[in-house]
Every structure is written in structure tokens, then in C-alpha cells.
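Posting this for the archive.
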Amino acid sequence: MIVNDGSKDKTLEKLIENFDLIQVPYNYIEKIHTQPFRRLFKSMNPEYSKLVVVDKENGGTKADAVNAGLNVASYPYFINTDVDCILSKKAILHCVIPFINDKDVIAVSGIMSVANGCHIDHCEITEPYPPKFSLPLFQTVEYMRSFLVGKMGWSSINAMHNVSGGYGMFKTQTCIDVGGYGYDSFAEDMDMLWRLVTYSCDFEKKYKVIQIPQTCCWTEVPSNLKILYRQRTRWGRGLIQTFVNHRRLFFNKKYRQLGLLTIPYMFFFELLAPIIEFIGLIVLLYLAFTGGVNWYTAWIIFGAVFVFNFLVSITIILYDWLVGPSYRKLGSYFKLVLAAILEPFIYHPLIVVFSLIGYGNYLFRKEAKWGEMSREGISNKMNDANGKETIKNYGI
């Protein structure tokens, strides 16, 4: 199911033309309130017989579009993903197994990898390569660290803080019962999971959120500063927005691991971290100019922090190489090691600044826009009827 969220770039027309869509009558029942539903299309091409396209007015956020999809969904489980994502052949199989094995599972998250730099043929990753030495390469290390260390660890104690909006499987009815995704949320993935856990705890239901170790999805990440800025300021805005909306959960034992562990951790080590780092830098500069820094001790502390950060990254890279591997050539992993070395000096300061701007945008009520993501950095190879290689990109 594709939700066309009031696009203005002829996306719907391209879909109709390329997938032989026709409008069909549909009794749209608004289980979750969204911006007005327009039409529903199905494909006349037998190859795309299961394709459904929902056309609606723009809601300003992804959450509103996903809610419209939930209103049309008819199966007990659904996967929330983006159209710039490429799923592995066994993505659905990997994620549905935890639901089958344990009735208490309400959501499953699969590992997301970076598609920038990869060769794609007929919507399949044919040759996985890391991105060139640019912003996406740093994000590759960041994604590996987040999923293989962070989320796998949180999952082991049933304390996941979010199921990525790029790829995750949920129980359809449970998501409808909690009122769907927050229509105004700019961190809809985190907001939805906190809603699900809150709902389960309020009604004293058992729940489990699982992170599986398989790569289920390849996604395009921002390839330039403009798009990275737009993405991370939105994430920063969404993070503080989610804490404000769910503030009653903070240190609330009723909400189990989420209230007592996950949210306090997220508050001190995710929300406050950029603020503390920025203030720390200002204080350091002041003390440096006033002669108040013991440079010998300062360099020792800096070295310890840098080595710890590097060892975490290098451990994940080594683990992926031994168990995965995500990439075929050893040289690809040397690129990741170089990115891990330079990340604290080049990439991380950008993330800190963008996060602070996102906080400011929320606090000063700056008008929020979802923004656009361009398709850059992916070699999307398609074959035409004559076997000639062509490039086709559809902005949806």
C-alpha cells in the first residue's frame, strides 16, 4: 500500500501511468482521524494485483499519511516503511516469526542499513558498497552502532525506545486502538512505541518489543548538509516534542522499563546531551582564555573519551565483518574505520548543532515543515525492454 500524501510533483500521475492504476469505489471508514481521504486506486496489471494506492490531502507529517494507510489496512500486521527504502527478500519473514512465537509481541524492528553507494537492480541490492567518503559514510557507522549495540541491548531487557520509522512491523489493531500515530508528531516512530507501551501498561497487558539482528531494509540517508540539517532538526524537534507529550511517564513505575529506565536514559543521554556538550565547549573556551585549564589532564580525558568511542565503533565494524558481512571487500571496512576515527571531529559537532536548532524551533514555535528528501547517492539500475540499462527514479 502506497499513501500519496497530497503530492504536488505528479507522483500520483506517475503511479497511475507506470502501474496501470484505476480508481475503484471504496467505503472509507475513518478509524483514525486524518486529513480528508480522496480516492483509492488498484492496479489492473496482474503483476501488481496486490498494489493499493491511497490518495489523500497533505497532512504535513508522515504520521498522518500512515494513519490513512491504517484506515485502509485489512491484515492483522503491517509494516511501516518509506518509499526510498529497499526491503530484503526475507524482511517480512524475519519480522513475523517473533509474532508467531510469542503472542505478547506488539512490534518488531529490523536492522536498517545505508543504501547510498550500493548498486540496485530491479529494486534489489545487487552489490553492497559503503558510501564514498562523505556524510553518508559517517551515518553508516552511526546506523551500525545504533542497531547492533543500542537497540539490540534495549531489546534484550524489553526497553526499546523506538521502532524506526524506516522499517518496523506492528499489530494493526493495537495501533488503531491507541489512536494511531500522533498526527502532529515529528518523531512518529518514537511517539507510536511510547503510545503502545502506555496502552499496554494502562490495561495491564503483557507486551514485548523485539529488535531482530537481520538486515531487513536499506535506506537512503542525507547526502549533503542541507538535507542532513533538515532531517536532524526535525528529529531534534520531534524528540523534545515527544518528551513534552509523554512527560507523565517520567520515572513512573506503572510504565515499567519505559518509565523507569528508557525515558530517564533518553532524557539525560539523548535530549540533554547536546545541551551539555555545547555548554561544556563554551566553558572550556572560557577557561582556556583565562588560563584555567590543566592541559595535561584535559588531554588525558580527551584521549580516554576518544578511545572509548572509537573502540565501540571498531567493535561493531569488526562484528559486522565477522558475522555479516554487509560488504564483500575488506577495503570497504577500512573506509568505515577511517570514518569512525574522524566522526568526533567532523560529523558529531554537526549533529549537536542541528539538534540544538531543532530544540529551538520547537521552543520558539517556529513553523514546522516535514521537508523533502532528494534521491542522491544511489546507483539505481533498471533494465528497459531492450535490455538497455536505464535510470528510473520515482519521487513518492
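Residues 75-391 form one domain. DSSP finds eleven helices and 13 strands in the chain.
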